[in-house]
Amino acid sequence: MDIFLRVIAIFIEVVILAAIIYVLLAGVRLILFDLGLGAKYQRVVAMALILASCMAVFFFIAHLTAFYPLIGG
Amino acid sequence: MESLRELFWAGQEAYITEVFMPIIIGVAIFFPVLIALFLLGFGRRYRLWKVGQTDNRSDNWFNRLMTTLAVGIANIRIMRVRELYPGLMHTFIFAGTALLVVGKIMRLFSFGGITIPPQSVYLIASLIAEIGAVLIFIGGAMAIYRRYIKKPARLDTVPEDTLVFVWAFILVLTGFMIKGYRIASSDVIPTDWAMWSPVGYLFSKAFPTFLTEIKNEILIWHRVLFHTIPAFVFLGYIWVNRSRLQHVLLSPLNVFFRSLKPKGALTPIDLEAVENFGVSEIQHFTWKQLLDLDACTRCGRCQDACPAYFSGKALNPKKVIQDLKAHLYQVYPVPLVARPIEDRPDMATEVITEEVIWDCTTCRACQQACPIYIEHIDKIVDMRRSLTMERSQMPDSAQQALQCLGAREHPWRGTTATRTEWTEGLEIKMLSDDSNVDILYWVGCTAALEERNMKVSAATARILQAAGINFGILGVEESCCGDPARRMGDEYLFQTLCQKNIEILKSYNVKKIVTTCPHCFNTLKYEYPQFGGDFEVIHHTQFLIDLIREGKIKIGSLDGNRVVAYHDSCYLGRYNDIYQQPRDILGVIGGLSRVELTRSFSNSFCCGGGGGHMWMEEEPEKRLNVKRTEQFIEAKAELIATACPYCLAMFEDGLKTKGVEETVSARDLSELLLQAMVTKEPEKKKAEKSED
Fold it and tell me: Which domains does chain B have, with CATH numbers?
């Protein structure tokens, strides 16, 4: 039961972290273009940021799975 | 480094060097970056506004500051009865953010080891911040319901809007998570935590913690990082980006630099000095007009208020502002190198179409609705000026009206009436015969030349005579005041008419003018002073109610009991804030039961005659007067009371179109007043006795 709860807790954490990464990188993307990065780089930037997001999310999953506190003690 | 200790909470001790030092380093790096982003973003905008023409808005700073605080802090133009839901929503988000910031600042300055404040400061700061965050949640939830479920037509949603919602939600959520973890990992649990940090306390119940203190501190450190970094990027995004969040900065600026000139006064053109007549390119607008474009939050209140949009016309004031804004950034892309004119779309025909420019009745409903004082009408009239004076591009009917104004000094082409026809049998003094009068009755073209309105001028004159007022008229010497010419963009013709009228008025030493037409009233009162014509100008509703109060005319009752609805003329109400006097006049006339339309007072619906539309052809199914007449019929009004000759003519037409002229009639207040005067009981009895 505790392991099941831990998995749910990690899942919720990953969702929240993924949302954080999304808003963070989306904001970076908007700022980059607003500061003058040409429209022709849109696709490249989007791909780079998606890649960074995926790597971050994988890292969080691994990290949380390894270090997340045990439920109940 | 020596570990400073801060009381995280009552009983809990955390090592500041281990938990907070990375954040302090983060802030030390990010904060200058944030300042740099702000300066970069604001500097770019400032340069963009400076592309526009000069406009002095630096007067009366105290007044400007007070209004900015009233709008910015008290939300006075946002919280309105008819905008209760969005008003409350905005106020929750605004107040929540303000409280959150106050809470955070209190914590910042009550930093352990620096100020050593009493413990209660932490507690109060915590509670304030939590109340703020809860208000943001409530306001945000209301906003999400409205934007994504209710979906009012006036709102358009772009991906950035959704991002902002997710972002704000994440920031508040992670803030609560930090608090929750800190409480959960605390060694001692004071009993009043739930009181000072109710939401954080609830969160603390949801999170598992480590058994060792150092691991818990690292966990909290992670949480703080995931809260702080997006927060900094969020702030950077607000400062730099062109999203609606810019309104945090730009709305107060726009309110501060709002126009303080009379609402009804258009800016004159120095015809001998200017290179451009009106606005045909984006840089011809003033800097404030360009700031308007940046400041617009796309709230859509102007769109909801616009009668032209409501009746299905092409004009949408929100879209006008947004299209001009997009054009501004198209012409001056980053880094502000102007695109050559040949590469730009034509602003006055392609970006904003001619149809849109000519659809506006200058009713001011959009500006009245705008919470941040965006000035739509000046921009539209400026573009009309270019179309009219530089290109002669205008609807045929507008052109004919202007030609008639130029040739005959009135816009009623085809009329055979003279300006004195309505005076027959009334023995009214002409100033050319005797200028020794107390008051000049400025009749106006419509009241003098339009058949239905001649009865209004006659009624007004008869009331003035009954009250013993020494008044006269200019008769054939009166020319159009110039309002239609100015609103149709022909500034040259307006100035010609204006200067001629001023000359005549001064030659007769006129001091006080009474007029039945709100358009003449507005022009004489607020636009003639621009050319040296300073007169005391009074609308007949103001004058008549004074006569009644002074007992100079006795009012009786109309026959029967009729339901009357008063129509607030745009140029009397919204432009000149005369709402009560006409209603007071109706109040003293017996035999009337007054009803208010849903759209009345400052939210009144234009009759469709302003801005030169009195003389312009309209598509039958999009006529504003018919839409307004339908509102009277829905309100079950038997009598439409007006105080404007345009409105009266428009409603007469609307009633005929709807086929209800037998059951519903339109009357000017002076006609109703005269009717109530002549039918008052003593006279009736006298007449009956004499018949006997």
Answer: 5-45+60-256 (1.20.950), 282-393 (1.10.1060.10), 410-546 (3.40.50), 547-681 (3.40.50)
